[in-house]
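The instructor's notes for this session suggest beginning with a concrete chain rather than abstract definitions. Hand out the sequence below and ask the class to guess, before any prediction is shown, which regions might be ordered.
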Amino acid sequence: MVLDATVSFKTAIWFWMTAQDNKPSCHDVITGQWTPSAADTSANRQPGYGVITNIINGGVECGKGQNPQVEDRIGFYRRYCTILNVAPGDNLDCYTQRNFVEA
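After discussion, reveal the predicted structure:
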């Protein structure tokens, strides 16, 4: 199997920037350009890093309570926010969110 780094990078950027089905783009969420719909609010999806986890891996990680892998990821996110001198914001996990697939 030959891996093409350029195609992999372009695919990742496309995923980050593109809304899909009923999911907003990760970019819109992290830059504050996403406003939750009534269905999102009902599913406990509010702006923040937790919604990005929901977009990427919600069916596996969201709505299932605390998870050590998610805690680790939040820790890394907080660390890089500190390094970059930006606030991590609120709603960092998706523990109580319904995933987008269930919507």
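Then share the key points. The first helix runs from residue 5 to 17. The domain at 5-102 is CATH 1.10.530.10 (Lysozyme).
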